[in-house]
Design a protein that fits this description.
- By secondary structure, the chain is α/β, with parallel strands linked by helices.
- It folds into three domains: about 120 residues, Rossmann fold (3-Layer(aba) Sandwich); about 160 residues, NAD(P)-binding Rossmann-like Domain (Rossmann fold); about 80 residues, Erythronate-4-phosphate dehydrogenase, dimerisation domain (Ribosomal Protein S8, Chain: A, domain 1, 2-Layer Sandwich).
- About 40% of the residues lie in helices and about 15% in strands.
- α5 packs across α6, α13 packs parallel to α16 and α14 packs antiparallel against α15.
- The model has no long low-confidence stretch (mean pLDDT about 95).
- Catalyzes the oxidation of erythronate-4-phosphate to 3-hydroxy-2-oxo-4-phosphonooxybutanoate.
- It catalyses: 4-phospho-D-erythronate + NAD(+) = (R)-3-hydroxy-2-oxo-4-phosphooxybutanoate + NADH + H(+).
- It is found in: Cytoplasm.
- Its main location: cytoplasm.
Amino acid sequence: MSMLIVADENIPLLDSFFGDFGEIRRVSGRLMKAEDVADADVLLVRSVTRVTPSLLQGSRVKFVGTATIGTDHIDQAWLEENGIAFCAAPGCNANSVVEYVLSVLALYAERRGIEDWSELSVGIVGVGNVGGELARKLDRLGFTVKLCDPPRAEVEPEVDFATLDEALDCDVVTLHTPLEIGGAHPTYHLLGADRLQALRGDQLLINTSRGEVVDNQALLNRLGQPEAPVVALDVWEQEPVIMPELVNKVWLATPHIAGYSLEGKLQGTEIIYQAVCRFLGFPVRKQAGQFLPEPALSKLSFTSSAEDDAAAFTAMRCCYDPRRDDANLRLVMGLDASERGAAFDRLRKDYPVRREFSSVKVQLKGTSKILRDTFKDLGFKLKI
């Protein structure tokens, strides 16, 4: 039986993973409409497509997959009521986001003239797949970490969770919560005017979760005041039509690409491929690893002259330097207002291949044990 799969054109390796199942119709995720999916059996989306009754009512769709860790764009209750199977890709790009945050931390340590970056205390707000993986890496690297996750704190009394205020008092505050509008623990505008006011000039705030977790207008106001925190934003309210004034005021501005490593994207596709196989009763025959191309950069070598943090920062930056994405987004903000939204989406659609630290072999000749451990903890392959 041949079936029709309608998919966001930005999901990688659609043909490689899903070509055997039937016809694939590629659609712009942002512009997807009811008529695009009316005759589809399977719908595959990313976070820019709102999957609601107005999109699916009266369609043939029996399975919805999102190649993302977030699900706030999906009306899951309605899907369940209508017998439509659903799968997300939790954790698929967690490591990609973690490497983004580590790269930002390294730049920030240099900006502040901090000799040993692990002297920075880090408050992680939201300790799911991404926050948990970040905590493990920072812990191994010797950072002091405070974990804040009220929903987990309720059910895991044995874990030493911090309050939000304690997390917000750290040198670095990094947000990894889902977007929850209501419920017991809403995260919409979790950082509003009052909490932003309490942040100090010697703090760094990073948001890679959802734009709406931070009140962007309140943040813009705060950044115009004395003793404002240093801010790195990857997510924004009202994407793709974001506030150019806010881009101008933050230290680092990137176009919602923290999770955009090639490995992360392919894992997202692989997870929904596995779910489609289970749904259809087919065997799982393919894995993301078989489709990974050779990395552009495959080897780095450091000698006994290398200084520990400097060498680690160099290697991280060879894989990913957030300043390139920052420069591209700022150029886009210079365009006419009517063109900015499409240009923001284009930065994501045409995003250059970014590989994770694990794709690079690092050769160390006569370097310290500390440096060897640091490279291992960051996730590089070691060749000693």
